[in-house]
Amino acid sequence: MAALPPCPRGHEAARIVRDGVQRRGGRERQRYRCTAVGGLYHRFIDALGRTRTLYLTCC
Ligand SMILES: [Zn+2]
Predict the structure, then answer these.
(1) How far is the CA of 53 from the centre of ligand 1 (A)?
(2) CA–CA distance, 44 with 58 (Å, rounded to integer)
(3) Which tens digit of pLDDT belongs to each residue from 1-28?
(4) How far is the CA of 3 from the centre of ligand 1 (A)?
(5) Total count of domains within the chain
(6) How far is the CA of 5 from the centre of ligand 1 (A)?
């Protein structure tokens, strides 16, 4: 099992789940969904092979 990354927005109590893989420009990026307490959620992408995280949507 691969470890899930923490929420880049600091939602410590949130639940992180995989939300598919996005292909873009020949690269694959793992997409995650962060569901915070109360049902609010947002998605973020962890670029494979990189340490940089891109934000797609916000709460
Ligand atoms: Zn979050």
Answers:
(1) 13
(2) 9
(3) 568 888 888 888 899 999 998 887 888 8
(4) 16
(5) 1
(6) 11
